[in-house]
Amino acid sequence: MDFLSGVSPSVWFAMGGAFAVKLLELTELHKLPAVERPDFKDWLYWFPFFTLPLLGGGLAYAYVSSDATLSPMLSINIGVSAPLILRAMAQVNPIESSVVRIPEDA
């Protein structure tokens, strides 16, 4: 339990923000027809409820470990946007040349 009490509040806020996104998605399911609703018995449906808070908390932990000061609201925002941030980071190819080539006849 010492580990949990030693975690920065910013990490907890980020995890809460990521979890809130999944809860909002869950609350919107009543608008779908019963045929289109997901299978709640499938573990793959519940998997993001655990992974997204971990990703959000991990990203906030990276910020805090880099000596960044995070307010609670900024931490929540990081948790909410963590999947988008990490997806954008994964799509960047640092090996790819960033030189823009202009055709000679332009």
UniProtKB/TrEMBL annotation:
Q: What is this protein called?
A: Uncharacterized protein
Transmembrane residue ranges: 44-64
Alphabetized, the UniProt keywords read: Membrane, Transmembrane, Transmembrane helix
